[in-house]
Design brief:
Main location: secreted
Largest sheet: 7 strands, antiparallel
CATH class of the largest domain: Mainly Beta
Subcellular location: Secreted
Structural class: mainly beta
CATH architecture of the largest domain: Sandwich
Number of domains: 4
Helix content: 10-25%
GO molecular function: heparin binding
Keywords: Glycoprotein, Neurogenesis, Repeat, Secreted, Signal
Distance between the termini: 111 Å
Radius of gyration: 40 Å
Number of helices: 7
Protein name: Protein NDNF
């Protein structure tokens, strides 16, 4: 039998007749019925493209058939069929139709002639059958020209699959190649991170420019293919961006999606009912630390090797890991009158906890905000008694019972680091900070500015206190940075001696008249200066007024 691809363009009944006429000279009733069935199958089949991935949609309980032909020139040349289920398990099989062995010569009728049933069965035979949701590949080595029929069947629900047929297995692979050991190793676990590593794909080592690894993280289960993962996420009502489109603008994201940048890698988080599904492509790196996970949560990790040119992918063997529980916050004991300086990490957004056991009924809590923005939450025996954002210097006077337990929780409300000084003391205890005026602002008088001097004023109190003035020359583009980075808890000891202008004592029993002015001389014309005033109380701990920037006149 001589075949060529020309035969593919013949009507299917002629094609079948050509293959079957050599099989049965005078078919019996049973073989006639088998022949009718085979022809019916081919009439309801489509030709499967060679060298191209085909997407096939399956309806529940309705088989779908595809066929392909191997001509005489392809004999003894291997072919392969790869089927990727994209959702539920399916059943698929390969049947081959070929001519049976020639009839034996006369004289050997009793020993070599095939029975009628053998003749009928030799026309079609099943050479492969599989049921499941794994990616499976069948490799065949034909010895005769033949027609092959592929039958696909879904019993659970409507679904879709991809099928790849190639009769040229020597010219390269559509799918990237997996390493001999395709497992993903979990090399590190923390409360919010998991570090993964996997062996390099031979495809990545040979064609690094067109290959990349993509990672999928979810809280449900592992996926055996990228196709299956995308289908599951879409079925949850979320549009999943393609792995190769992670560099798209954030404005293209769906409402349920969040884009994050971590470790210089862009990842997309899909918010679904079953938890988060995160995608991230990491180029040809074979290790990655997944950030921003929830403590005490089990996650499933899948790695796919993706061909950027064909969009074909292969899946590593997925793994899972449970993040560690968040450690109990460390509790620092507060002692009467002792000052505790707390520095808070704004990026981690964690609470810092202080505990104080009252030895008196009336208690004072004092907070001096040094840098940044901080939220304070105070409880007494588990019940909230105060909660607010701190600003400058803040006192809380609380009344309870002996041996009441107070917990003070502090948290930075911005991404940069924040710091605060905290003191707890009985009502009669010597105050940590001096009596403060109504405002800690410094005022300057524009009309009193000259080329060599400026005049500033600030409020005082009813008790005699010491005030020290400092100045610092700055550039105009440094104002914002100086004001943001200033540590409002630091005293004059952090300043250079040349910046000190003067120190003075004053007070006034009438708060309305407790104001003082000072003219600072010896300045340079057209120059910007930053002025600070420090107030010292009986304890010697200073309170810093808000810095004031003033520029001298350029011409006088």
């Amino acid at each position: 039998l001589k075949m060529s691809w020309f035969w593919l363009y013949l009507p299917l009944h002629l094609l079948m007749a050509t293959f079957l006429c050599h099989s049965i000279k005078s078919p019996t009733t049973s073989s006639q019925q088998s022949l009718k069935t085979n022809i019916f199958n081919f009439y309801h089949s489509l030709m499967l493209a060679d060298g191209k991935e085909t997407t096939i949609h399956l309806l529940k309980d309705i088989p779908k058939r595809y066929y392909f032909v191997l001509e005489e020139g392809r004999v003894l040349t291997p072919f392969s069929v790869t089927v990727t289920p994209c959702d539920v398990p399916i059943e698929w099989s390969i049947l081959v139709y070929k001519s049976p062995p020639a009839k034996a010569a006369p004289g050997h009728h009793d020993t070599q002639e095939l029975s009628k049933s053998q003749k009928a069965s030799s026309v079609a035979s099943t050479i492969f059958n599989y049921k499941g949701n794994s990616v499976e590949t069948y490799m065949g080595m034909p010895s005769h020209p033949a027609l092959y029929l592929l039958e696909f069947f879904s019993t659970e629900r409507d679904t879709h699959i991809t099928v790849y047929l190639t009769t040229d297995t020597t010219s390269g692979h559509l799918y990237p190649e997996l390493p001999a050991d395709p497992r993903i190793d979990v090399v590190g676990v923390g409360p919010t991170t998991v570090t993964l590593a996997w062996k390099h794909s031979p495809s990545a080592l040979q064609h690094g420019d067109s290959i990349q690894y993509c990672l999928l993280v979810n809280e449900k289960h592992n996926y055996k293919s990228l196709c299956a993962a995308e289908t599951a996420i879409r079925s949850a009502g979320v549009k999943m961006l393609p792995s190769l489109a992670l560099s798209l603008s954030p404005y293209l994201l769906e409402p349920q999606q969040v884009m994050i940048l971590s470790n210089s890698q862009l990842s997309i988080i899909n918010k679904v009912s079953s938890g988060e599904v995160r995608q991230v492509c990491v180029g040809t790196r074979n290790t990655y630390t997944v950030p921003s996970l929830s403590p005490g949560t089990q996650y499933y990790f899948d790695v796919f090797i993706v061909n950027l040119l064909t969009n074909a992918s292969a899946a590593y063997t997925g793994t899972f890991a449970r993040t560690l529980e968040e450690p109990e916050p460390k509790v620092t004991e507060l002692k009467d009158g002792k000052v505790v300086h707390v520095v808070l990490d704004g990026k981690k957004q964690k609470f810092y906890t202080l505990q104080y056991q009252a030895r008196h009924k009336k208690i004072h809590f004092t907070f001096q905000l040094c840098r940044g923005q901080i939220r304070v939450h105070i409880t007494r025996n588990g019940k909230t008694v105060a909660s607010e954002n701190l600003s400058g210097l803040r006192y809380f006077s609380l009344k309870g019972k002996l041996l009441d337990t107070y917990l003070v929780q502090l948290r930075s409300t911005e991404e940069s680091n924040s710091s605060v000084k905290v003191q707890a003391s009985p009502h009669f205890h010597k105050p940590l900070f001096p009596l403060l005026p109504e405002s800690l602002k410094i005022k300057s008088f524009s009309k009193l500015r000259t080329c060599r001097s400026v005049t500033i004023a600030w409020l005082g109190t009813q008790e005699e206190s010491k005030y020290c003035v400092y100045r610092k020359r700055i550039e105009e583009d440094q104002i914002w940075r100086e004001l943001q980075s200033a540590d409002r808890c630091s005293g004059p000891e952090s300043r250079h001696k040349s910046e000190k202008v003067l120190c003075k004592y004053f007070y006034d029993l009438n708060p309305q008249r407790a104001v003082t002015t000072e003219t600072i001389k010896g300045l340079e014309a057209g120059t910007l200066y930053l002025f600070d005033v420090y107030l010292f109380g009986p304890s010697g701990i200073p309170v810093r007024y808000h810095s004031k920037a003033v520029k001298t006149r350029k011409k006088c």
